[in-house]
Amino acid sequence: LKDVPYVLRATGLTIYGDEEKKIMSEVEKVDGMGKPVSQATLQSWLDENNKSYIRSYDDAYNALATLCHEGIAGDKQTVKMPYLRHLMGEVGDKIPPQTFDKIVKGGEGGAGIKSDTCSLDEFIAFLQK
Question: CB–CB of 113/126 below 8 Å?
Answer without folding.
Answer: yes
